[in-house]
Design goal:
Length: 189
Protein backbone atom coordinates (compact mmCIF):
# COMPACT_ATOMS: atom_id res chain seq x y z
CA UNK A 1 0.00 0.00 0.00
CA UNK A 2 1.21 3.49 -0.71
CA UNK A 3 -0.08 6.87 0.32
CA UNK A 4 -0.41 9.32 -2.52
CA UNK A 5 -2.73 11.74 -4.18
CA UNK A 6 -4.25 10.55 -7.41
CA UNK A 7 -3.74 13.01 -10.25
CA UNK A 8 -7.41 12.45 -11.14
CA UNK A 9 -8.74 13.08 -7.64
CA UNK A 10 -12.46 13.65 -7.99
CA UNK A 11 -15.75 12.66 -6.43
CA UNK A 12 -16.16 9.88 -9.02
CA UNK A 13 -12.90 8.17 -8.10
CA UNK A 14 -14.09 7.35 -4.52
CA UNK A 15 -10.75 7.81 -2.70
CA UNK A 16 -10.48 7.10 1.03
CA UNK A 17 -8.82 9.42 3.53
CA UNK A 18 -6.21 7.41 5.45
CA UNK A 19 -5.72 8.26 9.12
CA UNK A 20 -3.01 7.05 11.42
CA UNK A 21 -4.08 5.03 14.47
CA UNK A 22 -4.37 8.35 16.38
CA UNK A 23 -6.95 9.55 13.81
CA UNK A 24 -4.67 12.19 12.28
CA UNK A 25 -3.98 12.06 8.53
CA UNK A 26 -0.69 10.36 7.73
CA UNK A 27 0.10 13.42 5.63
CA UNK A 28 -1.62 16.70 4.85
CA UNK A 29 0.30 17.57 1.70
CA UNK A 30 0.03 15.48 -0.23
CA UNK A 31 -3.11 14.41 1.55
CA UNK A 32 -2.95 10.75 2.60
CA UNK A 33 -5.51 8.98 0.46
CA UNK A 34 -5.82 5.58 -1.16
CA UNK A 35 -7.79 4.46 -4.18
CA UNK A 36 -10.99 2.60 -3.39
CA UNK A 37 -9.34 -0.61 -4.65
CA UNK A 38 -6.38 -0.31 -2.23
CA UNK A 39 -8.78 0.61 0.58
CA UNK A 40 -11.00 -2.46 0.04
CA UNK A 41 -7.88 -4.65 -0.04
CA UNK A 42 -6.66 -3.14 3.28
CA UNK A 43 -10.08 -3.71 4.86
CA UNK A 44 -10.09 -7.38 3.83
CA UNK A 45 -6.50 -7.83 5.04
CA UNK A 46 -7.63 -6.36 8.39
CA UNK A 47 -4.99 -3.58 8.29
CA UNK A 48 -7.48 -0.72 8.77
CA UNK A 49 -10.67 0.18 10.58
CA UNK A 50 -13.50 1.64 8.54
CA UNK A 51 -14.44 5.02 10.02
CA UNK A 52 -16.90 6.39 7.45
CA UNK A 53 -18.57 5.07 4.29
CA UNK A 54 -19.68 6.48 0.96
CA UNK A 55 -23.19 5.75 -0.29
CA UNK A 56 -21.48 4.06 -3.25
CA UNK A 57 -21.14 0.28 -3.27
CA UNK A 58 -19.19 -2.22 -5.35
CA UNK A 59 -20.51 -5.67 -6.10
CA UNK A 60 -19.01 -9.07 -6.62
CA UNK A 61 -21.03 -12.09 -7.74
CA UNK A 62 -21.60 -13.00 -4.07
CA UNK A 63 -21.58 -9.75 -2.13
CA UNK A 64 -22.00 -6.00 -2.06
CA UNK A 65 -19.58 -3.67 -0.23
CA UNK A 66 -20.05 0.00 0.56
CA UNK A 67 -16.87 1.91 -0.17
CA UNK A 68 -15.02 3.36 2.82
CA UNK A 69 -14.48 7.12 2.65
CA UNK A 70 -12.31 7.28 5.80
CA UNK A 71 -10.14 4.53 7.27
CA UNK A 72 -7.68 4.44 10.17
CA UNK A 73 -4.63 2.25 10.41
CA UNK A 74 -4.76 -0.41 13.12
CA UNK A 75 -1.09 0.15 13.98
CA UNK A 76 0.39 3.57 14.64
CA UNK A 77 2.98 4.66 12.07
CA UNK A 78 5.53 7.00 13.61
CA UNK A 79 5.86 10.00 11.31
CA UNK A 80 9.30 10.86 10.01
CA UNK A 81 10.84 13.71 11.98
CA UNK A 82 12.88 15.04 9.09
CA UNK A 83 11.24 15.44 5.69
CA UNK A 84 13.08 14.48 2.53
CA UNK A 85 15.02 17.26 0.81
CA UNK A 86 13.09 17.55 -2.47
CA UNK A 87 12.21 20.40 -4.78
CA UNK A 88 8.54 20.02 -3.84
CA UNK A 89 9.31 20.20 -0.11
CA UNK A 90 11.48 23.31 -0.62
CA UNK A 91 8.54 24.93 -2.46
CA UNK A 92 6.17 23.83 0.32
CA UNK A 93 8.48 25.19 3.05
CA UNK A 94 8.55 28.52 1.18
CA UNK A 95 4.78 28.41 0.56
CA UNK A 96 5.15 28.22 -3.22
CA UNK A 97 6.41 31.83 -3.33
CA UNK A 98 9.58 33.38 -4.67
CA UNK A 99 11.58 34.35 -1.59
CA UNK A 100 12.89 37.47 -3.35
CA UNK A 101 9.81 39.06 -4.95
CA UNK A 102 6.87 36.99 -3.65
CA UNK A 103 5.45 35.85 -7.00
CA UNK A 104 4.02 32.36 -7.37
CA UNK A 105 4.83 32.07 -11.09
CA UNK A 106 7.72 30.29 -12.88
CA UNK A 107 9.16 28.82 -9.68
CA UNK A 108 12.55 27.18 -9.48
CA UNK A 109 15.11 27.20 -6.70
CA UNK A 110 18.18 29.29 -5.99
CA UNK A 111 21.35 28.60 -4.04
CA UNK A 112 21.73 31.49 -1.59
CA UNK A 113 25.49 30.94 -1.67
CA UNK A 114 26.02 29.90 -5.30
CA UNK A 115 27.64 26.56 -5.99
CA UNK A 116 30.39 28.44 -7.82
CA UNK A 117 31.24 29.99 -4.41
CA UNK A 118 31.18 26.63 -2.61
CA UNK A 119 27.49 26.66 -1.70
CA UNK A 120 25.87 23.31 -1.02
CA UNK A 121 22.51 21.99 -2.16
CA UNK A 122 21.02 21.77 1.33
CA UNK A 123 17.94 22.96 3.20
CA UNK A 124 20.00 25.80 4.72
CA UNK A 125 21.23 27.12 1.36
CA UNK A 126 18.34 26.65 -1.10
CA UNK A 127 15.31 28.93 -1.46
CA UNK A 128 12.36 29.05 -3.82
CA UNK A 129 12.88 31.69 -6.52
CA UNK A 130 11.09 32.69 -9.69
CA UNK A 131 13.07 32.40 -12.92
CA UNK A 132 13.47 36.21 -13.36
CA UNK A 133 14.87 36.64 -9.81
CA UNK A 134 17.09 33.59 -10.20
CA UNK A 135 18.50 35.01 -13.43
CA UNK A 136 18.94 38.46 -11.89
CA UNK A 137 20.88 37.08 -8.91
CA UNK A 138 22.83 34.68 -11.10
CA UNK A 139 26.05 33.43 -9.53
CA UNK A 140 26.38 36.36 -7.15
CA UNK A 141 26.32 36.32 -3.38
CA UNK A 142 23.21 37.97 -1.85
CA UNK A 143 25.15 41.07 -0.72
CA UNK A 144 26.66 41.67 -4.16
CA UNK A 145 23.28 41.16 -5.88
CA UNK A 146 21.56 43.18 -3.15
CA UNK A 147 18.95 40.40 -3.03
CA UNK A 148 18.00 38.83 0.29
CA UNK A 149 15.26 36.24 0.76
CA UNK A 150 12.18 37.23 2.76
CA UNK A 151 12.82 34.14 4.88
CA UNK A 152 16.26 32.66 5.37
CA UNK A 153 16.39 28.98 4.37
CA UNK A 154 16.10 26.37 7.14
CA UNK A 155 15.51 22.66 7.52
CA UNK A 156 11.78 22.33 8.21
CA UNK A 157 10.16 19.75 10.43
CA UNK A 158 7.37 17.53 9.19
CA UNK A 159 5.03 19.73 11.26
CA UNK A 160 6.27 22.85 9.43
CA UNK A 161 5.40 21.23 6.10
CA UNK A 162 2.02 19.98 7.38
CA UNK A 163 1.21 23.49 8.62
CA UNK A 164 2.08 24.98 5.22
CA UNK A 165 0.30 22.15 3.40
CA UNK A 166 -2.98 23.10 5.07
CA UNK A 167 -2.78 26.40 3.19
CA UNK A 168 -3.03 24.51 -0.12
CA UNK A 169 -5.96 22.06 0.15
CA UNK A 170 -6.48 19.53 -2.64
CA UNK A 171 -9.07 20.07 -5.34
CA UNK A 172 -11.47 17.56 -3.82
CA UNK A 173 -12.39 17.06 -0.15
CA UNK A 174 -15.30 14.77 0.61
CA UNK A 175 -17.65 15.94 3.37
CA UNK A 176 -16.97 12.82 5.46
CA UNK A 177 -13.29 13.82 5.68
CA UNK A 178 -13.84 17.21 7.32
CA UNK A 179 -14.07 15.91 10.89
CA UNK A 180 -10.58 14.43 10.52
CA UNK A 181 -8.75 17.24 8.75
CA UNK A 182 -7.10 20.14 10.49
CA UNK A 183 -8.45 19.26 13.94
CA UNK A 184 -4.98 19.84 15.37
CA UNK A 185 -4.90 23.38 13.96
CA UNK A 186 -4.78 26.22 16.46
CA UNK A 187 -8.21 27.59 17.31
CA UNK A 188 -8.96 31.27 16.85
CA UNK A 189 -9.89 33.26 19.96
Amino acid sequence: MHTAVSPALSAGSWPALVLNADFRPLSYYPLSIWSWQDTIKAVFLDRVNTVALYDKAVRSPNAEFRLPSVVSLKSFVRPSRHPAFTRFNVFLRDRFSCQYCGTKEELTFDHLIPRSHGGQTTWENVVTACSPCNLQKGGMLPAKANMWPHQMPFQPTVNDLHKNGRLFPPNYLHGSWMDYLYWDAELEA
